[in-house]
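agent: user wants the structure for Acetyl-CoA acetyltransferase from Nonomuraea endophytica. delegating to structure tool.
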Amino acid sequence: MTAVAVVGAAESDLGVTGRSALELQAQAATRALADAGLALRDVDGLATAGVGRFAATQVAEYLGLRPAWTDSTFAGGSAFEMYVARAVQAIGAGQCTTVLISYGSNQRGARTRALSGVHEGDVPQTTHEAPYGPLYPISYYALAAQRYLHQYGRSRADLAQVAVAAREWALLNPRAHRHAAGPLTVEQVLAAPMISTPLTAADCCLVTDGGAAIVLTALDRARHLPKVPITILGYGEATTTAGMSQAHDILDTGAAEAGRRAFAMAAVTPEDVDVAQVYDSFTITVLLTLEALGFCEPGAAGDLVKEAGPGGAFPLNTTGGGLSYCHPGMFGLFLLVEAVRQLRGECGARQAPGAEVALAHGTGGILSTHATVLLGADRG
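agent: tool returned. relaying tokens verbatim.
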């Protein structure tokens, strides 16, 4: 397999930006290319989602690109980790040389959580679940959380600790939406307005504007570019069910399969991971994912996340995550941007010491799609 590396990574403006989704994508893309020492004319591969049915076509036109390879697979928040796999394969097959993966959304500015796309009526959520009036997607994650607490005898405080650790990191990140909000306590998470039992508002991700982008190319070329190449060590994915009513076990998320495939390809283990970036749409997403990826035994993630904040033994979601940093609809690409920066040693006060191997894991839908990417610093 051709060795491929990330050579550029950046975000757009975040928060309430006054920009369109395409403007945010363009801003992130040009910043990532500048970070790589490249330009738009170097890009011949493009992967993107979130701006309509023909996302790659629209973004390519907006950026003035005529790519030889594109991907616009719509799989929710895990799509961007999936794109990394496809980009590695496309570069290895000679279909393209330089892949731009980008995303942008103005959900907060537009006062919507909607994502573009075709919504079919004949799906489990509509035919079997909608009559019960669930809030999409939180009621589904709440259902998983309630089952988790019952099955393992854990408490809501274990969920809250995820949000507390995320806020601690956000206080060290000037770009985080909650950077100036002050510390968050377990008691404050528990006392926040209940949205869908057992999840309060503080258990839920933010709604912000924002965009992100990364640039990939072959490792032999990457070694001649300005930044330390961040090599793709391994990747894996899994798809489960579109609706909770179809799941054989709502705590079996598919992350275990995705992680197992990625770790096998990379020939590393969870013990080798120095810093982890895990999708945190809700606090329960993190607990389920950490256990599925093998960082701890089932039911034990509540103890692990007590070490997830700054100075802890398990640096997790070091931007502040979707809970305190940003969350513009789909967060998977921001996980990759931070993993790259951590491995380069660019994170200042929030830097994980000695980071050589990083994990980024995306989750899409209602625990429906899962994708893991393992990255390593090439310092030779």
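agent: one observation worth passing along. Residues 4-111+206-377 form a domain with the Peroxisomal Thiolase; Chain A, domain 1 fold (CATH 3.40.47.10).
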